[in-house]
Amino acid sequence: MRAMVMAAPGLENLRIEERPDPRPGPGQVLVRLRAASLNFRDVLALRGGYGSRQKQAGLVPLSDGAGEVLEVGSGVTRFKAGDRVVNTFFPGWLAGPPAEAFLEEDVGGLHDGVACEMRLFSQEGLLPIPAGMDFLQAATLPCAAVTAWNAVRAHGGVGPEHVVLTQGSGGVAIFALQFAKAAGARAIAISSSDDKLARLAALGADDGINYRSDAEWGKTARKRTQGRGVDLVVETAGAATLKQSMRAVSLGGMIAVIGMVGGPVAEVQLPLVAMGSLRLHGIAVGSRRHLQEVLQACAQHRIEPVIDRVFPLAELPEAIGHVASGQQFGKVCIEIG
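^ that's the sequence the OP posted. Answer follows.
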């Protein structure tokens, strides 16, 4: 089988290798991967940015894949040959709160990922793909959609009475917008591009703010909620936006801290947190149960993942560069075969 392998950190060190076809052992499922998707996390991993929390040499990258079962090992009861499946980000985290042991089993970081033609999975680390959803769509879900769901629904508890603010037009932001609208909430989107704001409006955003032309967008968001503020900010940028997010959020509101595109170190004004009873809640993707809820929500509300571009496996370095540029609208995917 073919696999894209990072010999050492750096895009220049990505190479296609031929590896022996794997065979499943007890409890394992052999999947012929058909599609994968990229996250900003993959950009960082390919730079070696996670340090000791990732494999630094010989890493097969990417965490999110979908394909069909080729063969199952002894004791496997959840799947059979021919089933269409999508993998979970943390194979051992089935439900409930996170634990250190779960977070040490991430795909595409400490363990090899899905940028390959075949991969073995534990039967517990897979879920069936619903009818009507193709491999590319399913491959967009394990990281970005689960993260957005965790922020908006599992921890945010968003409903029709709430206002949600999303940042940009990456995978997490668009899924957060789609899930917020499916829950009946009002959604405010921010972007550096008026064209992208128009596309976000077409996806359901009720209001939009161009943060490049409005540096005080947090105050503007508060004004557009008649001074009350938004109930949830899906914070995907990090240090560059946290100050304005804190200005936008309502008394007792929540900032779901997810991304670090704008930097990993931020100054936090503690009086604003204390006096505003704010909640800064970190989101570490989610469990298999969260992915199951995402699959059900997509089917129930007819939510279609937004795919920006599709690259072949051999062009993974170019795909990574596209994600790093921040120009995408939605998910960037890899077609494996």
